[in-house]
Please model this.
Amino acid sequence: MKIIKIDKKDWAGGLKKSENSYRLMGPVKGGNRLTSEFRVLEKGQVPDLSLSDALLSPKSIVFPQSESMFKYTTDENSDDVNILKRPEKEYPLTAVVGIRPYDAAAFLILKKNFDTKEYRDPYWMDAYESCVFVGLAVNEPSSTDFSASVNSGPFAEAGLDVLLADDGDVFLAKTLTDKGAAWLKAAGWENEADLAHASKRIEEMKAAAEKKIASTISFENIPNKSIMELYNADFWNDAAFSCINCGTCAYLCPTCWCFDIQDENHGKSGSRNKLWDSCMFPLFTLHGSGHNPRDTKTMRVRQRFMHKLKYYPDKYEDGPMCVGCGRCVRFCPVNIDIRKICEQMNSYKAC
Amino acid sequence: MQNPYEPYPIRIDKIIDAVEDKSLKTFKFVFLNPEDEEKFSYTAGQFAELSIAGVGEIPIGIASSPTEKGFVMFTVFKTGKVTSHLHSMKEGDIMGIRGPLGNSYPWDLLYGKNVLIIGGGFAFTTLRSSIVYMLDPKNRSKFNDIHVVYGARSPGMLLYKEELAAWEARDDIHMNITVDATDDPDWKYNTGFVPTITEQKAPSASDDTYAIICGPPIMIKFTQPVLENMGYPHDHIIMSLENRMKCGVGLCGRCGIGKELVCKDGPVFTLADLNKTPREY
Model:
């Protein structure tokens, strides 16, 4: 492990230099100026690190909201009629600059779904493996940031290749992997800081940031309760009462992975697309027969929280399917709060 | 690793009207590339995603048996967008298949045991696969008694009628075919609902007897207490579930019931398994 000192005067220049061998992605204002998101940067464009807490999580880098899986023709005169072919797509080496530690941690949760011993999603994997994640540590956690209680935290390193700590006039860049070191080298940043001194400084900043985290959740009792006990708990109707099933929580969530597959046709050619979907929507589970096993919003709200806080941890023997970014808490139009529901689950006792 | 979303190309080799009201058709498919048939090596109880470019995919239980070579067979009920389109396709058309998917009936567990098969309506497809598999000369000695209760609304709605008649004639399988009602004077089998016929004809419970149930929800609802009263423990009652699916390989999150994914952890579960999970199917 090395710590490289990057003078902020050299920031834009180094990024530009790295563009010789990397495509850069980073936080920018969204198209309508109201949102912020991670996008491919124009040559010479500097990511706006004040937007690292981007409204739209960077999961779309690896898992786009819509993506063509196959192209086909339905033209009977073609030799390839009705044969599906994966479209040619480049996966250039990409440095994702300014991603928050919690959002990088989210990719590790998604990976458990998309990279299994039986099946691997090649679209997700190809995109993921082409990325170098250059994280930006959180000095000023938001009031809804509870990342420190769900296996992440303001200076957490899991899932990152480089961790940048913003220390006034300089970034202290902790190299976490060879991939990260290679990107720093490509940017021409090779000024090694004194390791002991810089490590101590990062530890101080980390401790200061963690101290500012005002928001926590506890889930230590949830693993000891059975699925059916929590499923039949008495608070779900109240929890779901105000929900309008808009799906904002799932679309903003960096760990929500559910998707749909649909064919879209233009004349005799078309594309089979993978599209984000959400358990909040009634159509998600509607059978062809008309039967819907989750036909009430209470059932759908329960599904979302049970999946995150009970089913996923039980299935993967992992912590919650949540990285504490706080987006769903901030942007839920009816103020449903995962921290409160987690607390209800954690403290629930069946009578 | 192979792209799990990419279908093997297949040709519709034969289409057969399966029941008198034409709501079900049986499709025999052949693989365009013979090596794909090798890769599509399946076990009775598994399913596949049938894929039609420009329309979509649909998860359907495999009705042919692993012992039948050179084709794969599915019997499909016309109900939604993809199945309706499939019903309008013709022999020779090219489409796709992904699979085999899901677990299967627990054959390792069933070897050496008595097997009671209970089926209703068009949910008899993977059961047909299982019966053909068990009756294969290479396999029959691996099982003890085989009992079948299979019912449909009327004689004309029974699937695979010629095979049913052939199995009736054998002495190594106990067939109990039934219809809800019929005015056919030549009907020589049972009349009555599946739960009733099960109560009358099914073998008594034992450690070595397993029941496999596949049918409409109403049939399952009334058959389960019959088996319980007969003393079948919940881990000896095996069921195959259906849920809305897309990917079929455990990635899209759609078909979850609790922590189990019907497509990958199922579709076959014991009643004991299902007691531990929400019945969201």
